[in-house]
Here is the input.
Amino acid sequence: MKRSVLLAAAVVLAAGLAGCAAKGQEPDKGRQAEESQESLEEIVELMLWTYPIGNWANSTNVASLLSSFHRSYPNIHISVEFLDYHDGDQRVDEAIASGQLPDLVFEGPERLVADWGSRGVMADLSELWDTELAKEIYEPVQAACKHANGEYYIFPICMGTHCMAINYGLFREAGALKYIDEETHTWSTEDFIHAVKALTSYGQERVGAVYCGGQGGDQGTRALVNNLYSGTFTDDEHTRYTANSRENIRALKLLYDLEGICFEPDMVGSDEIAQFASGQLAMAFCWNVSMELNQIVMNPELDIEIFPMAFPTDDGQPNLQGGIWGMGIFDYGDEKKVQAAKTFIRFITENEAQYTKAVQASGYWPVRDVEHIYENDILMNEYSVFIQYMGDYYQITPGWAKTRTAWWQMLQEIGRGGEVEAAVSQFVSKANEAAKQH
Here is the structure.
């Protein structure tokens, strides 16, 4: 049986689990009752903007998640608009400029904390963190959600790690499977080089693409460069950018010179995924479990064997780009709306059954220990191996938004044949100038 068929079965299992109530800690009944009484006094209309995080991009799934809340709080009405990563940030920027902000937003600390929080448009959620349940959230996640000023602008729901993927069947035919460790899903930089050469010798001209047409999926290209020779992107304190290290320059030169790896100035992550799924590329650098789920749903005729991999590294210790996603509240002076929005966040995070559904809808993992959330799920169990490889969450470094733009522009310059050291130096200069402005 092809692996894609097995994974389709896993999707069905995951969907079935989403309807099951998990056992565990229940919310504060007294506080919920008090909030329910308050909610009867007047109708509060809220708007939630959500980025495409798993099935949080699906209107039917989100409606199902909201229905339980609306039953418990009939006078708090939540409407939803769905953003994408192509123009979502622009929409938020326009909303900030016009003062026509939504109330709730579902995304990650790099936006809610490092960007919008630094711009003073987010509500402080510290009171949501002042609970015993919040103390169970993993420490690295807590750290990523806290602004340098001590305030919290996001309450996390789920987490995951980005990885890459290979066309397993093509690797087998090219004799390249010997270069990967199938048990740990890891490989060395030298093995990566050997695999690319084996694939090109087999006749696969386009093995992998360094896509740089925009910021979509840029976590993949950053992780690829940083892992090849154990480079870093920022300092440990997340105050400045260090991507102009000798290790990263060496990695970029390798990628540019390696036959079979192409710099694509008009391609973004979603384009790379589509070409990988269609067999045009032998590997994808923009990947995670959500990508595979989406491919199974969107491409029922998917005819490749997908095998997820950590990025190749020279020291045997992959450092994968982590993802954290949660709820934030835009604050424009309406305290009733802020409190109603906090009520919604408490509802989906403090009630174990609702929290389980919210996490499963994301297609990622909980930010605290929740047992058996993906029991019997073949796909999620396979991808759980990558959680142990989660690296530094540097996306909260000041100037992050401008840094992301400067990154893909740098890759374009290198792809055009520009001198690597100069391009990287210019990138770091722009990034650190942006960091100083915060």
Q: What stands out?
A: DSSP finds 18 helices and eleven strands in the chain.
